[in-house]
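Backbones bend. Our protein:
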Amino acid sequence: MSQLPEEFVSKYQSLLGEKESQIFFNAIKNDNTKKGFRLNSLKNNFQQVSYSLDKPISFADNAYYGIVSGRDIEWVSGTVYSQDPSAMYPAIIADIQPGERVLDLCAAPGGKSTALAEKLAGEGILVANEISSVRAKILRENLERWGATNVVITNESPEKLATKFVNYFDKIVIDAPCSGEGMFRKDPDAMEYWSQDYVIKCQIRQKEIISQAVKMIKPGGKLVYSTCTYAPEEDEQIVSWLVDKYNFRILPVKHYQGMSSGRPEWADNNEQLKETIRLWFQDGVGEGQFAALVQAPDTAELGTFNKSKKKKRKNNSNTNAQRLDKKQQQLIDKVIDKFNLPTQLVDWPKLAFNSNNHVYLPVVEDSRLQGLHVLNNGVELGILKKNRFEPGHQLAEVLGQNHQKQVVELQSEDSYQRFLHGETISITTDLIGFVLVSYQGHIFSFGKVGGDKMLKNFYPKGLRK
């Protein structure tokens, strides 16, 4: 364990007092980290996992304490997501309902986005945004595994998003970039770059992000603000600023065992700040977390911006995107007719577009997304090639929502690991053509069976291990 910065020690001795601060410092040094995972209820057989379910996390559905490996079939198939237990809480207090429009503004690596998408249950829209291109790629991979059908993934600045989604979202989640004090135990390197100056820099950036978010929320909409730091400048003081500047209202959230209240005295003494949540290391839930739920006023003018008026367009305005013609539909149907489609995909012939031979079902009209860096809009069914259609990996993960018959089950750990590596596998089956590939009952890829009974590998090269 690295040495705690002197400035940090002095600060929390002043804030907490000698006795309470020592308990806090000892909890950091004890390195008693707790790991957790969530089961994905979107998947057909999500409860059939090899992990112990004896230690449930009290405040989260289908969530447990335990360790998950990135090579396990449960992870590869999107049946589980490994996540710090404390970090699960912000998505929970968002109280997502099917049909809502939701924005995860600082979304990578995807823990909160997967939870939000799961609660939407295929209805409504989730826009998951990440400003870092490297982290956005990881976000896309994690959401693709999750098998959600109604997600748009963007790699944009909040400023640019705000020009496209004025007063659009019912709920916004901001897990803001922060000074990372709540990660000191998990990531000791965070101590190396910590300083009080860095805390203030983070506070400035957090205000900039929120200033864009308020332009995108509907009147009366709700916003979850969270960080993985303990700094009052980035926690209670940000919430106070949001209330004062934009007339938001702090809403009560349920406090479970191991959760502490926010500290009004560390901001402007607004007693409603006690409704916010602090998860200290010594609370024993997980790593450090702050979370608050606030509600926008019932007015159309939340920020100093102009709501542009645009004529509605009936057609998709992406110049490269076109409706499928009859021949293309037939090529696609020849492949996917064998599979049991989730409800959201049943009408694909009417809903799908072809853009540069990539066939996808958008959940947000392309006209709204023009000018944004979009990594994914809805579900990519696959790619049209010369006189044939090749189904995509995202479709395989989506099909894991339903029971399927066109499936090849790998019979051994060795076969599973070889397939992950990209190898062709010799199998015994009566199936022919494109099939779903599963291991221990978890679908995770497409394959193709030829007359020689060899299972050709369609697991994406970028994911191979």
